[in-house]
Amino acid sequence: MAACAGATRVGIPVNILVIAELAQDKPASASLEHLALARSLAGDGRVIALLLDAQIADAELLIARGADKVIVGTRKAFD
To answer: How far apart are CA 63 and CA 5, in angstroms?
Structure first.
């Protein structure tokens, strides 16, 4: 992420992908921290979260915590 921080300082929008994980059927606290860091580094860029085998409520939480977009994959897609 250090390279992203450097790009943001010179005014280049940076899009950042955060791969979020679930812990006890909810987004892990570390994933929420990564979203916050990504949001601070992205500047005018977008923060996109990838969350596998999750519910819509989980995606809504990630958006509330700084993601511009959440891609949710279901288990069926990976069978």
So the answer is: 21
Q: Which residues, other chains included, contact 30 with Cβ-Cβ below 8 Å and sequence gap of 6+?
A: 21
Query: What are 19-37's pLDDT values in tens digits?
Result: 999 999 899 999 999 999 9
Strand 16-20, strand 47-52: pairing: parallel
Please, are residues 69 and 46 in contact by the beta-carbon 8 Å criterion?
Answer: yes
59 has which bridge partners?
none
Q: Determine if the pTM surpasses 0.90.
A: no
No. of helices (H) and no. of strands (E), the chain: 3, 5
Side-chain-side CA neighbours of 31 within 13 Å: the count stands at: 24
In DSSP notation, 22-55 reads EETTEE-HHHHHHHHHHHHHHTTS-EEEEEES--
